Amino acid sequence: MTSFRRWFLAVLAASVVKAEPVQDPDLQLPPSASIHQATVKELFVTSYEAYQEYAWGHDDLLPVSESYFDGRNGWGASIADAMSTMWIMGLTDWFEQAVNHTANTDFAISHTFDTVSLFETTIRYVAGFISAYELSGGQYPVLVEKAQDLADQMAHAWVRENQSIPYGFINFANLLPTIATTNIAEAGSLTLEWNRLSLYTGNSTYQTLAEKSVQYMINMPTPLPGMPAQGIDPLTGDPVGGYVTWGGGSDSYFEYLIKYARLTNTDDNSYADAWLTAADTSVKTLLRSSTVDDWLYLADYDDDQVIRHVGSHLACFYGGNWILGGKLTNNETLVSIGLRLTDACWNTYASTATGIGPEGFAYISSDGNFTGNTAPSQEQLDFYYAHGFYITAPDYILRPEVLESNFYAWRATGDPKYFNNAISATISFKKYLSTTVAYTGIYDVNNVISEKIDDMESFWFAEVLKYLYLTFDDPNHISLDEYVFNTECHVFKAPPAKSHYGSGSEPQPVSSQPFSPMSAPLPAVSPNPALLRSL
Ligand SMILES: *[C@@H]1O[C@H](CO)[C@@H](O)[C@H](O)[C@H]1NC(C)=O
Ligand SMILES: *[C@@H]1O[C@H](CO)[C@@H](O)[C@H](O)[C@H]1NC(C)=O
Ligand SMILES: *[C@@H]1O[C@H](CO)[C@@H](O)[C@H](O)[C@H]1NC(C)=O
Ligand SMILES: *[C@@H]1O[C@H](CO)[C@@H](O)[C@H](O)[C@H]1NC(C)=O
Ligand SMILES: *[C@@H]1O[C@H](CO)[C@@H](O)[C@H](O)[C@H]1NC(C)=O
C-alpha cells in the first residue's frame, strides 16, 4: 500500500468515526471575558470566605443570620460541592483544605438525625469527590474511598433480590430504607457517578445497581412513549400516578440517558434510544408556544391526558440537554429546539425587575391556559401579555438551570447574545443577592428590594458560579466535547465521542489504547506536603 493510500484510508476511517463537535469550533471569546470571569471568581471567593468564617464544616452558610444549617447530613455539603469549581478556578490551597476536611470526615454515619437521600448524596458528595479526584489527576485516592463509604451504605436502598428501583432514603444507623414511593429522577440519576465509582474501585456492583434501575424504567409501561410517570414503587416496580414532566422529580432521569451513553460510549443503544424517544414524544405532545411572543416551552402532562401549561427554573435545564443530545445524535432539529427553549427560559430572567428568573411560571398557548392549578389572576395576565409567561412562584434560590442551558448554547453557537446573558446575570446577582457577608436567595425576583432568603445552597458553588465562570473561559477549558457534566455540574472526563449516538450508530473500533480519564494533561500542581502527611 502506498503511503498516500494509507493516509487516505486513515482520513476516511477518521471521518467515519468522527462526530460533529458539540462546541462551535470557531467560537471567539470576546476580549472582555477576563473581566467578567474575574467578577465571578470574586463572587466565589467572597461566598466561600464567609462560609469558612461562619459555617465551616457544615452544609450551608446562612448568609443573613451569619450562621449555618445542616440539611445534607452535616458532612460539609458546600465543601464537597465547591471542590471541582475550586480546581477549575485555580484555587488550589482551598482545594487541598477541602480534601483534608473530607479525609477527616466519617461518611459512614449521618452527622444529623436525618435519613440520607440517595439522589442528593450521589449528585453532590459522590460526584463532587470523584470529579475532584479526576481533575486533580488521581493524587488524592482518599476522595474515592470517601465516595465509596457513602455508596456502600447507599447500596442498601435496594433491599430485595428482585428489586430494580432503589428506595430514595436510607437510615445510615441501621441501613434500613424509608419505605415510600421513589421518583424517576432519584432512581435514574446515579449512572454517571456509580459507573465512575466502579471504574476507580474495581467493584462493578455500583454500576450494576445504577444500570439495573435505569434499564427497568426504560422498559416499563409509560403514560407517553419514552416518558415514565414521575412516581414509582420500588417494591412492585409499578408506576405511581401518571404525571409526566421534564421538571423536578423526573428531570435528570431524561438528562442522564444521553449523558450516560456519551460518558461510557456503550454499544448498548438503549440509553440514547430512550432519550430520543422521550425527545420525539416531547416534540409531538408537550411542545407549546406562547400566544404572546411565540416562546417555546415543554409542558407537563397528566394521565387525565390534559396538558399543564407550566414551566419551572428546574426544567430549564432542558434547553442545554437538547442541544447536547441533538448534537450527539446528529439531529439539528433537536438542537434548534434546544436553543429556542433556552431563549424562552432566559426571557424569564430578562423580564423581571431584578433580571433574575422565578422558580415557577406558566403561559398560554393556542390550546388554552390550563395549569392544573388556579387560573391566572388579572395581574398575572397583565404580566403575561407583556412577557409571554407569568410568574407562579416568585422566589429564586440560587438555582443554575437557566445559566446551564445558556452555557451550552454559548459553547455550541458562539452567538454573543448568550455571552451577554451571562454578563447580565452576573451583574444582577451582585446587585440583588448580596448580604453583608455573601450571596443568598430572594423571595421575589420581580421586586428590587425583595426580602432575602437566609440560605446559600451548596449548588451556588457547584453550579451557578462554575457555569458562569466557564462561559467566560477559554472554550477549550472543560470543553463539552471532552467532559460530561453531572446534574450538579461536577465534570467527568469522557472518551472521544462516537460518530453518533442511538440506533444505527456504528460499533466502535476497539482502541488499542484503553481510555483513562486520568491520562489527560493536567494543570501543574504542587501538593502541600503538610496535607499529604495528614492523609
Ligand atoms: C462491592 O460493593 C458492594 C456494595 O457495597 C458490596 O456489597 C460488595 O461486597 C463489594 N464487593 C467486593 C468484592 O468488595
Ligand atoms: C418482588 O417480590 C415481592 C415479594 O416476593 C413481590 O411482592 C414484588 O411484587 C416483587 N417485585 C417485583 C418488582 O417483581
Ligand atoms: C430529529 O428528531 C425529530 C424529533 O424526534 C424527528 O422528527 C426527526 O426525524 C429527527 N431528524 C433526524 C434527521 O433524525
Ligand atoms: C383560560 O381558559 C378558560 C377555559 O378554557 C377560558 O374560558 C379563558 O378565556 C382562558 N383565559 C385566557 C386569558 O386565555
Ligand atoms: C487538616 O485537617 C485537620 C482536621 O480537620 C486540621 O487539624 C489540620 O490543620 C488540617 N491540615 C491542613 C494542612 O489543612
From TrEMBL:
Pathway: Protein modification; protein glycosylation. Its EC number is 3.2.1.-. GO terms for biological process: carbohydrate metabolic process; ERAD pathway. The keyword NADP does not apply. Pfam families: Glyco_hydro_47. Residues 505-516 have a biased composition (Polar residues). Disulfide bonds join C316-C345. It is an enzyme of class 3 (hydrolase). Transmembrane segments: none annotated. One of its GO terms (cellular component) is endoplasmic reticulum. Keywords: Calcium, Disulfide bond, Glycoprotein, Glycosidase, Hydrolase, Metal-binding, Signal. This is alpha-1,2-Mannosidase. Ca(2+) binds at T487. Its cofactor is Ca(2+). It catalyses: N(4)-(alpha-D-Man-(1->2)-alpha-D-Man-(1->2)-alpha-D-Man-(1->3)-[alpha-D-Man-(1->3)-[alpha-D-Man-(1->2)-alpha-D-Man-(1->6)]-alpha-D-Man-(1->6)]-beta-D-Man-(1->4)-beta-D-GlcNAc-(1->4)-beta-D-GlcNAc)-L-asparaginyl-[protein] (N-glucan mannose isomer 8A1,2,3B1,3) + 3 H2O = N(4)-(alpha-D-Man-(1->3)-[alpha-D-Man-(1->3)-[alpha-D-Man-(1->6)]-alpha-D-Man-(1->6)]-beta-D-Man-(1->4)-beta-D-GlcNAc-(1->4)-beta-D-GlcNAc)-L-asparaginyl-[protein] (N-glucan mannose isomer 5A1,2) + 3 beta-D-mannose; N(4)-(alpha-D-Man-(1->2)-alpha-D-Man-(1->2)-alpha-D-Man-(1->3)-[alpha-D-Man-(1->2)-alpha-D-Man-(1->3)-[alpha-D-Man-(1->2)-alpha-D-Man-(1->6)]-alpha-D-Man-(1->6)]-beta-D-Man-(1->4)-beta-D-GlcNAc-(1->4)-beta-D-GlcNAc)-L-asparaginyl-[protein] (N-glucan mannose isomer 9A1,2,3B1,2,3) + 4 H2O = N(4)-(alpha-D-Man-(1->3)-[alpha-D-Man-(1->3)-[alpha-D-Man-(1->6)]-alpha-D-Man-(1->6)]-beta-D-Man-(1->4)-beta-D-GlcNAc-(1->4)-beta-D-GlcNAc)-L-asparaginyl-[protein] (N-glucan mannose isomer 5A1,2) + 4 beta-D-mannose. Belongs to the glycosyl hydrolase 47 family. Residues 1-19 form the signal peptide. The active site is at E120 (proton donor), D251, E359 (proton donor), E401. GO terms for molecular function: calcium ion binding; mannosyl-oligosaccharide 1,2-alpha-mannosidase activity. InterPro entries: 6hp_glycosidase-like_sf (IPR012341), Glyco_hydro_47 (IPR001382), Glycosyl_Hydrolase_47 (IPR050749), Seven-hairpin_glycosidases (IPR036026). Residues 500-535 are annotated as: Disordered.
